[in-house]
Amino acid sequence: MQEPSPHHEVNPQKARRGLNRILHAGGYSIQGLRAGWGETAFRQEAILAMVLVPLAFWLGQSWIETALLAGSVVLVMIVELLNTSVESAIDRIGPEWHDLSKRAKDMGSAAVLLSLLLCGGIWLGALWQQLS
Q1: Which of 3, 9, 80, 96 is catalytic?
Q2: Contact (CB, 8 A) for 10 and 4
């Protein structure tokens, strides 16, 4: 097997610099969001975010409360995307069942659950404060 030359980049993104690199990275991010939209859980969370993030500006009594409310919703979406990326990478390796694959997928799922519980707790606390 021939070794790649030190001047030959496997990933063309690594050779880009400056604004060209930023523009391409932004395009990859948009592709990632589109891929996430294809996942039911992410799509449901994104639709809920379209309601909750604007509501955070109404419910939050300070910029810190608004940031916590909106940020907790965005955090759920971030964790969901990371979980989906872990699942995709594992599925790429192969469809057969393996202890480590199951463990990684379960841990990703647990991370989503924890982010949802955190988000729910923040929103319940804010609603409790608003209604009392």
Answers
A1: 80
A2: yes
Q: Does residue 81 contact residue 112 with C-beta atoms inside 8 Å? A: no
Identify the pLDDT of residue 18: 81
pLDDT in tens, 26-60: 899 999 999 999 999 999 999 999 999 999 999 99
The answer to whether the beta carbons of residues 9 and 15 sit under 8 Å apart is: yes
pLDDT tens figures, 97-108: 899 999 999 999
Contact 78/46 with Cβ under 8 angstroms? no
Output helix, strand, coil percentages for the chain, rounded to the nearest 5. Answer: 80, 0, 20
pTM of the predicted model, to two decimals?
A: 0.83
The rounded distance, in Å, linking the Cα atoms of 44 and 50 is 10
Instruction: Tally Cβ neighbours within 10 Å of residue 83.
Output: 23
Classify residue 2 by its DSSP letter. P
80 is annotated as an active-site residue: yes
